[in-house]
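Changelog entry: the Glycosyl transferase family 2 MxdB record was regenerated in this release. Current contents:
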Amino acid sequence: MIEFWQRFFDFWLNVPPERIVRLFWYFFLLEVPRYLLFDLIVVILFMLKRLWNSPSYQAANNQLFAENPLISIIVPGKNEGRHIPKLVESLTEQTYQNYQLIIIDDGSDDNTPLICRKLEQEGKIDLFLRNEERGGKASAANLALRFAKGKYVVHLDADTSFDRDAIEKILTPFYTDPEIGAVGGNVKVRNAKEAVIAGFQAVEYLQTITMGRMVASYLGIYKIVSGAFGAFRKDLIDRVGGWDIGPGLDGDITVKIRKMGYRIVFEPRAVSLTNVPISIKKLTNQRFRWSRSMVRFRLRKHADIFVPDQNFQFRNFFSSVENLFYNVVLDALWFYYVIRLVVQNPDIIFLMIVMKMFLYGMSNFVQVILVCLMSERGRQEIKLVMYIPFMSIYDGYYLRIVRTIAYFREWLTSSSYNDAWNPSKSSVQAKEHRL
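Regenerated structure tokens:
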């Protein structure tokens, strides 16, 4: 081991800087400008803008409490009984309390009905609904929508918990601008200590959700209001007809609201915590599902975003182009880059892998430190730096390979219509109507 590190340092200390740039051009030319320098600049501008607008934000917050509108919190899910009591307890501790809580059981075969009916009898759930036959998450959410009486609809996952002011924070932006149609909440990982793979996801969520969506929101290209914690104007949800069958239903409804001309914003101060998969198999299946939606919805269902007709909006066009470029085009380019690197430099390939881990580690370290400085729980999250040295393997190799496989499968076979995540009857109907 000592000999390797001696060789490593001897080699790279004697390599001219221009050769290092040539060897790692993908990192220096494509990823550092976009994911480090640009993001750092935008996040700083975002925070300065938030500081500058703090009086108007406080006025909007005061207006929210003065109006005190009824909101409908809907929670669709299957076999989520063990999570419901904790969710209900988390909501009773919220600073905003004028809500109608609707739980929808989508054909569960566990004790969810018993738990929810008991909570309903105790007055802790306003309405419990059940699909005796599973219809899928979209079907369950739309059932709740029929009974929702609130001015705003807050969509939650059952395994989510919240900071005490999370509901208040996710509603306040609606009172800063009447053109805001939906607000995304900040989703962080609760079970990071359960497994190494969960720790990697905790870092990923800080980078791609807390920081990434902050940047996208500032630029006006924020494209996915997470189903784990998102708020919508009820009148707009009614106009678009509710949720269509997923996977990708979160991004789909966000795009539909954007296409109506409304703004979608991210509120990093509205913090929720969720459990992430702690096995490679479950995580891979989850990411297959998420990635397939890129092709199914952005390239198929919402292809009209790329067409300059009378409803064309440049921000929507740029949002989808940016998403496709950095997640599809650059993924393909990365494989070309890696193959060429291996073919041309077989004698030093291991040294390059270690150097790549170092370079990406430094970049990830800067991002995570910045997020922790802004975070409400920075002292806890700073401990996640222990995962940074290996994040390049997690997101640079594993996630990229999973995404690419998902893209090819969806493009060639429309595999999302055969995903067990949705009931087969729903997928058949979705395929017939190209939903």
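The chain has 17 helices and eight strands.
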